[in-house]
Amino acid sequence: MKKLSITALLLASILVIGTACSGNQPAASGTATDAPVAEAPAEPAEGESTDGETAAVDADNPWSSFDTSKEEHLIFYAVGTKGSDHEKVVELASNRMKELINTTFEVEIIPLSDFQTKYPLVLAGGEDVDIIMTHPYIGPFTTHADNGAFYELTDEFLNTWMPETMKSQIPVSWDQAMYRNKLYQIPRNDSDYENSYGVVVRKDMRDKYGIGEITSIDDMQEYLYAVADGEKDSGMFAMYVNPTVPLTITFLTGINNWFSIGGMYWDADNEGTITPDQIFNFVETPEYREYCLRMAEWAKHGVWPSNAITNVTHLTDLFSEEKSASDITMYKAGNQDILDMREKGIEAEYFNILPETANTRISPYNYDALAITSFSKNPERAALAVDVMKNDVEIGNLLQGGIEGEHYIYNAADNTHANGPAAEAYPWSGWAWCLRSAFNPEEGGIEPKVAAIREQYDAVNLDPARFPVDGFTVDNTEFEAETALLNSLNQEWATSFDLGVFGDDTEAKLDEYIALMKEAGVDLVLSENQRQFAEFLASK
Fold this sequence. Notes:
The protein is of the alpha+beta class. The protein has 19 helices and 15 strands. The protein has helices at about 5-10, 85-100, 115-125, 140-145, 155-160, 165-170, 170-175, 205-210, 215-230, 250-255, 285-300, 315-320, 330-345, 380-390, 395-400, 450-460, 480-500, 505-520, 520-540, and strands spanning about 70-80, 105-110, 130-135, 180, 180-185, 185, 200, 260, 265, 325-330, 350, 370, 410, 415-420, 440-445. A 5-stranded mixed beta sheet has the order 2-1-3-12-6. Strands 10-7-11 form a 3-stranded antiparallel beta sheet.
């Protein structure tokens, strides 16, 4: 994706409880609403409609058997980047959907810089919204689900209203999307190494200050300090950070080979398969203390501006605008940084700073998903519309990349896409991460060095047998108060440690933070996580 994956964007939520649950298919758990089911096809014979009258079945329209005689209009909210041609592209997709199921739609974009405040407001009521993007750490998802914001998707409902998705969806994605044995979201159908972050730097700056290739956090620090010292009067910071982009995923969990489990973590350096007693709260580790102290030193050294905690501009934009000499991102976005900067006459480079011992893992499919709101006026039509978005190639590619030949160039030889002349007006996958599918063209023009890093990720992809967490969630019913307190503490403290706000008081503040977590019940939450995970493993 062009911007930082929402996935990575929100991993600072250290103690959010529950991101996936069990079952190979969506579990039938009763009717989610009393809304009338007036349009469902009653499995008609070919050429016959649900009311017994003969109907022409369009072989090119898998949804032609549905009675969509009544036109509907749907509102869709997503988090991401809105290009200047957004309305133009969505209108084309909407027109295509009207032809297929007599439904039009609009897509409202919540900017990456505003999602923490605006997203909850949309779900709090007062907004007309039928479909909304979800992510484990937006909200977080579990809180909104517990509050009844999302429509429950039963097996019967999905088989009726999303028949094409039930055929095409990767089975494990349903496992990852379940919550407390119920389903409230439709996961994407494509994934990649979105939690394996590297760094993007300017080669001219690296050459100017005699910095070698960057293969570790220490190398990165040398680069950042050199730029911070040498560019004080240029208006460019070494790394112009943003409080919505946690640095932990790049400079803590990644380099320490830690993987998230229900809000806690596991160290993949352990030999053999995971055991419940190996799950830990990383805030209490020496590694996190070292990380916090390092971030405080970076802040003191002027790596980023002192008011960075109020910054609302995304890192990638700041890098592109030459206000930052570096970016932190997954390899695809890093490759796009290289291409964008090359157009400006600046050579950028993407480096993998993970240790050779580190593992990688394909990101969960529920890291970008879609939900139907519980207050949608027509959840059945909303589900049908999502089915179309996820399975109609024309609409899917429009929403991902815009207009072929204008926003992107398609290469049929290898099914890839490259930037078109108006790429900035509709960045590829600027917001439609939740709709990604295997039929979308792959990103073309991957730089050889970046492709080599992707191959490194493949070579150390974590064996699922060593990390059997798909289908696991923590049921916090008995300790909701503790969970709420811990989430509140995390929101209050984590970003300040990320950005080195506490300076020389960092260690004392970290001790205070840990003490508050203890008072809030972190030991109970950890022990329950371990106990429930043991039960989960025993049931497999």
